[in-house]
Structure formats: C-alpha cells, structure tokens
Amino acid sequence: MGLDYPALLRDLERESDRLIDCLYSAAESDWEAPTPAAGWAVRDQISHLAFFDDFAHLAMTNANLFRVEAAELTSLGPDFPDRAAERYRHLTRCDLLNWFTESRQRLLSQFTTDDPKRRLPWFGPDMSVASSATARLMETWAHGRDVYDTLGVVAPPSPGLRSIAHLGVSTFAFAHRLRGLQVPAEPVHVTLNAPDRDEVWTWGPADADNRISGPAEDFVLVVTQRRHPDDTELTIQGDVASAWMAIAQAYAGEPGPGRPSRTATARREFDR
C-alpha cells in the first residue's frame, strides 16, 4: 500500500474532529463513566490521548529532550500509562477538552510541515513521521472506540481504517518479539472487506496456508485489543494466524492484556 501522506493527515483530522464533537455533546457525568479499559473512565481516555500527543510533538521538535522525559516516564514501571492517567484526574471536563483540542491541533500542524520520512524516537522502536501520524490515528480510533462504546454512540466507519489495518499487519513481527516469541517464518494472508464500499484490502502472499479474512473493522478491533477474536466475524485459518490474533498489538508499550471473550463468558454462564 503506497503512502498518501496528505490523505493520512486528513483522516487523522477527521477522526479527531469526530471524537471532539462527541465529547462536547457528552454530559459532565459521562466523563466519569467507566470504559471497557479496566480502571479507566472517559476522562482517562482523553488525558491519555492529549498526554501522548504532547510526547509525539516533543519527539518531532526536540528528540533529545523526548528521550530524557520518556526515560523518566518508563522508569515508573510498565504501568506508566496508568500512572500518567492518575496524574490528571484532578482536571475538569473543560480543562481536558481544551488540552486535547489544543494538543491535537498543534500536533497536526507539526505533521503538516514535517518530512514524513524523517526518523523519530518513540517508546518502542524509532519510527518515521508518517508512522507517528498513523500511530496517532490508531490511538485516536482505539481510545475513541472505548469512549463511543461507553456513551452508547454508534460511530460511523472511520476513513482511516485501512491505514490502521495496515499498521496492524505491519506489527506482526513486533507483537511476537514484544512477548519474547520467535517470529514465525510462515506468512499470513489477510483479506479484509472495507466498510460501506465494494472494496477488498489484502496483504501477504495469496497462496499462504495461514489466512485471516472478514470485516476490516473487526480486524482493527482485534489488533488494537478492543475485541477478542472470538467476538468478531473474522475467519482465522492456521496455527500461525490463530496465535498472532491472540497476541496482536498495533501499539507500542508493554504487552496488553487484551479483552476477554464475551462469547466464552456467555457460554460459561449458559452451561451453569
């Protein structure tokens, strides 16, 4: 998939605007509602986005200072995102909205003027400016999805879904190495149906024995660890593909716990 950097930034801007519009219409009590992320309310999802927007901007504008501050943050332990969320729980709804809106606009402006191929430091491996923009799109979609699920909002299909799916495929090796696992030599063919369009997106050799197919949104929900594979319409064939979907992680940081299977839980309740 060739990179259309201006289109990527437009997708990020639209995803950001959609989430911000939803937040403006949310009641003040909604900000304290628990989200599917254990221990996190809506307010924590938004402070997380704003906090790491600021770090992404710092990585682009002062790489040395980023490395110092990132090292200080990660020294708090693997739960440093939770510690950061706790740090900002005193902020009001208005404070959080202003912080996220202003940080996101500043970041978008920096992305627009920067070289998409330039390398940047990050909490995981170094990445390009374009990859940083894709990561912010993925994070906005994933944390936004937690917010929408909490508020009972049915979000329309994201214009950036293909970019997030591509990131999910590209992190195949990363997800294995993150857990100390050997990266499988066998390739996986991924075929995803685009939402609301007569279009199919594919990755990997067409003759691969390991295969994943189904709705693009379901694949993205799995690789952002917002859904268990059992709770999607994905068809997963082969041991390598199955093992990958159990650990897929399209974001940097410690291995995520994923979400429990609602299907398995329902079966256990039924068996009782």
Task: Please give a structural write-up.
By secondary structure, the protein is of the alpha+beta class. It has 11 helices and 6 strands. It has helices at residues 5-25, 42-61, 63-74, 80-87, 93-113, 129-151, 161-170, 172-178, 216-223, 239-247, 262-271, and strands spanning 119-120, 127-128, 188-193, 200-203, 210-215, 235-237. It has a 4-stranded mixed β-sheet with strand order 4-3-5-6. A two-stranded antiparallel ribbon has the order 1-2. A hairpin with a 6-residue loop joins strand 1 (119-120) and strand 2. The radius of gyration is 19 Å and the shape is globular. It starts with a helix and ends with a helix. Residues 266-272 have low confidence and may be disordered.
What distinguishing features does this structure have?
272 residues, globular, 4-stranded mixed β-sheet, two-stranded antiparallel ribbon, single chain, disordered C terminus
Layout of strands and helices, then pairs:
Blueprint: H1 5-25, H2 42-61, H3 63-74, H4 80-87, H5 93-113, E1 119-120, E2 127-128, H6 129-151, H7 161-170, H8 172-178, E3 188-193, E4 200-203, E5 210-215, H9 216-223, E6 235-237, H10 239-247, H11 262-271
Parallel strand pairs: 3-5
Antiparallel strand pairs: 1-2, 3-4, 5-6
Helix pairs in contact: 1-5, 1-6, 2-3, 2-4, 2-5, 2-6, 7-9
Mean pLDDT: 93
How helical, in percent, are the residues? 40-55%
Strand content: 5-15%
- Could you list the spans in which at least 5 consecutive residues all have pLDDT below 50? 266-272
Strand order of the largest sheet: 4-3-5-6
Order of helices and strands: HHHHHEEHHHEEEHEHH
Count helical runs.
Answer: 11
Shape: globular
Distance between the termini: 48 Å
The main pleated sheet reads as: 4 strands, mixed
Structural class: alpha+beta
In angstroms, what is the radius of gyration?
A: 19 Å
Q: Give the beta-strand count.
A: 6
